[in-house]
Amino acid sequence: MKQEVLVTGADAGLGLSLVKRFLHGGYTVFAGVYRSKDALLTLEGDYGDSLTLIPLDVADLESVRAAVRRVGERTGALDIVVNNAGIHLRNSKPSLEQLDLADQHLQQTMEVNAFGPLRVVQQFLPLLEKGQQKLVLNISSEAGSISDCRRENQFAYCMSKAALDMQSKILQNYLGPRGFKVLAVHPGWMRTNMGGLEAPLIPAESADGIFQLAARKWNADDPIYMDYRGELLPW
Ligand SMILES: NC(=O)c1ccc[n+]([C@@H]2O[C@H](COP(=O)([O-])OP(=O)(O)OC[C@H]3O[C@@H](n4cnc5c(N)ncnc54)[C@H](OP(=O)(O)O)[C@@H]3O)[C@@H](O)[C@H]2O)c1
C-alpha cells in the first residue's frame, strides 16, 4: 500500500518541493494550503488522486481540526507528518533596545513555528498512530541551536526554532515507546521567499535530502537534530 504524508505550508518554497518529491517517490500526499493553491494546482493534473489539497493554517486550532476531518475522509492512517510551515519576518532584526515587545509578530512567530507543529501532531495523532511509519518530521533550523548561536538579534525566529527543537525531544520521549520517530531537520539556507535570492541551495535539493531521511529506518534512540543531509547538529 502507498505511504501517506501530510506536508504543511505547501504553497511555496520547501513545502512545495517536498510535495513534488514525495509524489515523485510514490507517496499519497496531503498538501496543507495556507494562502495560495496556484502552484499546487498545476501538480494535480500529473498526480490525480495521489495529491489532495487541504486548507490549513497551523496557527489556528479550528483550521487544524478541520484539516484532520478532511484527511480522515480520504484515509484511515497517515505515515508521516512534515511540519514545514514557518515564518521569519525579514525586517525583524531589531536590536534589543529597538525591539517592540507589543508587536504581534513575536507572538505570531511562536504560534506558527513552535505551537503550530504541536497543534498538528496533537490533532493528527489518531491518524499517525494507525500509520506504518509513525514519523514526525519537524523542519527546524540551525537558528534553533543554542550552543552554535552567534546572533545578537532575531529573537522571535531563533527562539521559536529552539522551542521546536525542545518540542521534538519531548515528543520523542513521549511517543517513542509507541513506535514513533521524531526528527528536527535544518533544511539548509535555501532560495525561497524566506531564504532570499542569495541563498546557495535550491529547495528541491533540500527536499531530496529530507525525502532520503524520511525513507530511512529509524530507531527511537537515534539522533533527532540534523541537517537535510543527515549531518548532526548540536542542540
Ligand atoms: N529558507 C531558508 O533558508 C530556511 C532555513 C532554515 C529553515 N527554514 C525553514 O524551512 C521551512 C520552509 O521555509 P521556506 O524557506 O520554504 O519558507 P517560505 O518560502 O516562506 O514558505 C513557508 C510556507 O509556510 C506557509 N505558511 C506561513 N504561515 C503559515 C500558517 N500559519 N499555516 C500554514 N502555513 C503557513 C507559507 O504560506 P504563504 O506563502 O502563503 O505565506 C509558505 O507556503 C520553514 O519552517 C523555515 O523556518 C528555511
Question: Can you put this structure into words, describing what you see?
Answer:
The mean pLDDT is 96. The N and C termini lie far apart (36 Å). This protein has helices at 13-24, 38-47, 61-74, 104-129, 155-175, 203-215, and strands spanning 4-7, 28-33, 51-55, 80-83, 135-139, 181-186, 225-227. The protein has a seven-stranded parallel beta sheet with strand order 3-2-1-4-5-6-7, sandwiched between helices. The protein is built from six helices and seven strands; from the N terminus they run E-H-E-H-E-H-E-H-E-H-E-H-E. It is globular, with a radius of gyration of 17 Å. With 235 residues, the protein is α/β, with parallel strands linked by helices. Helix 1 packs across helix 6, helix 3 packs parallel to helix 4 and helix 4 (104-129) packs parallel to helix 5. Helices cover 41% and strands 14% of the residues. The structure holds NADP nicotinamide-adenine-dinucleotide phosphate. The site of NADP nicotinamide-adenine-dinucleotide phosphate has 32 residues, from helix 1. NADP nicotinamide-adenine-dinucleotide phosphate binds at residues 8-9, 11-15, 32, 34-36, 56-59, 84-88, 112, 139, 141, 186-187, 189-190, 192-195, 199.
